[in-house]
Amino acid sequence: MKKLRFSKKVSFIFTVIFLGTAAVAYGHVKWFSDFSFADKPLSFSDAIGPLFIGLTILSMVVIAAMVLLEKKLQEWPLYSQIDEWLRNKRGNSLLIMRIVTGATLLLSWQGDAILVPELQIPAVWLGWVQFILAFMLLFDRLVKYSGAGLIFLYIYSIFQFGAFHMLDHLLFFGAGYFLLVSDSENQKIKESRLPVLYATVGFSLCWLAIEKIIYPQWALYILEQNPQLTLGLDVDFFLMSAAFVEFALGYLLIICLLQRPLALIITLVFFSTTLVFGKVEVIGHTLAHGALIVFLLEGPGSMYKTPITFHKKLNLRSAFGGVNFALLLGILLFAYSQGAWHQYNTRSGQETEEAAVLNLTEEAGAPSVTIDVLKDPLSGWNLRVETENFTFAPESIGLPHEPGEGHAHLYINERKAGRIYGEWNHIGRLPPGTHTIRVELTTNQHRTYAVEGNIVADEAEIKVE
Q1: What are the b/e assignments for 376-404, b being 16+ CB within 10 Å?
Q2: 55 lies in the same domain as 87
Q3: Tens digit of each residue's pLDDT (9 = 90 or more) over 379-432
Q4: Cβ distance 127 to 121 under 8 Å?
Q5: Are residues 263 and 362 in the same domain?
Q6: Angle between helices 259-277 and 279-298 (to 10 degrees)
Q7: Which letter does DSSP use for residue 460 in this model?
Q8: CA–CA separation, 164 vs 207, rounded Å?
Q9: Are residues 261 and 406 in the same domain?
Q10: Domain boundary at 347, 372, 391, which?
Q11: What is the distance between the terminal CA atoms of the chain, rounded to a whole angstrom?
């Protein structure tokens, strides 16, 4: 019996290690990839392939098993001791949220961003608003007003960057609500801060996981630049698996399964990403770290019934966990797909795939491109892009079309790897093997140039030893 219990504990530890290692690639994609909502997303039906279905079934089984695992953990004396020790630290949660929210606001202000790195600040006064809100967190009586200000910044960002984009960062609304109601005299309202924080952080993780499925090219760009992250696995398999693990972590937060152990796992996962992505990752995830530390101290709270406890019988809880995982995955995948296609049609000014190409007639002024790929003496490859009758205009991206003007899209092995804004560009390290480098000229609105039906592009093949 002792050997069996020891085996279960070892299995749990190895599971944590696997999740942490695989999640090294979980850096927020938009902070490190050349993303654009004018990029063509996958449709709902295209996203659901054999691998997707297989990982869905596997995830349902694993989550159902985690319900049993949680019960076993609660019977482990050491776990109970740690749980009790953390419970006694609950009085520090508000202080932690004040510190990490203030740090987030100051770091964003310093980086000329609003809330997170990819949202460049649209007006100078917003930077000072963030500074003032951070300063207000020093005073007990002003904390709730700072929380209201954080909610204002989030809503303002929706009008600036769109609701679809800002769903990535719903945790800012949760953090603002947490600060706003922490001093409420109504105990029910005050206790609601925890489930709201759980739900918003969990949703943000789920939404970002779906992003990796609908826009795989964004994350593949990062993996092309950092091939060691795949751990030697097939890139497509690794990316889909990473998306499912991230979605599962967010889902477990929403239903409050594994509670404190889960918060610790996600915290370690986020810290592991800083080893690859550096301080940008730290800045972007500071608030999430604080929320997870609060979860470690508070657990699920005591006043509101957590979703996983709707059923008293263990077998019904297991079924609840597995079935609702698939249900939420399907709902969010469909919603994200619809939103992504709306963004694509709106940003690109097109309704059909054919409209994504600007077809020109053969004439002397038609644009053309040739490329040359040279080995960099230090690392990676240097890409030279020479054009005729074409001008790179990175400052005009998204603006109306101007003949002979735009930028280029870089493809590595038929996967979009980024944009090109000039003659010389650098491609990072590539895994061993043969790789096809392709460059296509596009308009300011991301439509691909073509002449007499032929895409204006050039490609080269390189071999990496």
Answers
A1: eeeeebebebebeebebbeebbeeeeeeb
A2: yes
A3: 788 889 999 889 998 887 777 788 888 898 888 887 777 788 888 888 877 778
A4: yes
A5: no
A6: 170
A7: E
A8: 10
A9: no
A10: 347
A11: 52
The arithmetic mean of pLDDT across residues 232-258, rounded, is: 82
The Cα–Cα gap between 317 and 448 comes to 51
Do 79 and 184 fall within a single domain?
A: yes
- Helices 193-214 and 216-225: crossing angle in degrees, nearest 10, is 80
Q: How far apart are CA 115 and CA 151, in angstroms?
A: 11
**DSSP-assigned letters across all residues of 164-177:** HHHGGGTHHHHHHH
Per-residue pLDDT, 364: 63
Secondary structure (3-state) at 95: helix
Do 377 and 250 belong to one domain?
no
Amino acid, res. 248:
A
Torsion of CA 248, 250, 254, 257, to 10 degrees: 50
Same domain, 245 and 179: yes
**Residues facing residue 435 across a β-bridge:** 462
Q: How many residues does the chain have?
A: 465
Q: 201, 288 in Cβ contact below 8 A?
A: yes
Residue 191's alpha-carbon distances to 93, 179, 427, in angstroms, are: 12, 12, 51
Q: Which two tokens stand for residue 324?
A: 């609702």
Which residue, 320, 347, 374, sits at the end of a domain?
347
Helix, strand or coil, per DSSP, at residue 449: strand
| 113/190 same-domain check | yes
pLDDT digits (tens, 9 = 90+) for 440-451: 998 887 788 888
Closest by CA position to 263, among listed 55, 116, 93, 98: 93
> Same domain for 336 and 446?
no
Lookup result for tokens 């698939």: 326
User: Alpha-carbon distance 463 to 19, whole Å?
Assistant: 33
Residue 454 φ/ψ, nearest 5 degrees: -100, 125
Expressed as residue numbers, the domain containing 417 is 355-464
Instruction: Count the Cβ atoms, other than its own, within 10 Å of residue 428.
Output: 15
Q: Is residue 173 within 8 Å of residue 151, measured between CB atoms?
A: yes
Q: Using an 8 Å Cβ cutoff, are 154 and 172 in contact?
A: yes
Domain CATH for 373:
2.60.40.10
Coil, helix or strand at residue 220? helix
Give the integer Cα–Cα distance in Å for 167 and 455: 35
For 354, the token pair is: 């054919």
**Amino acid type, 384:** R
Averaged pLDDT for residues 363-378 = 84
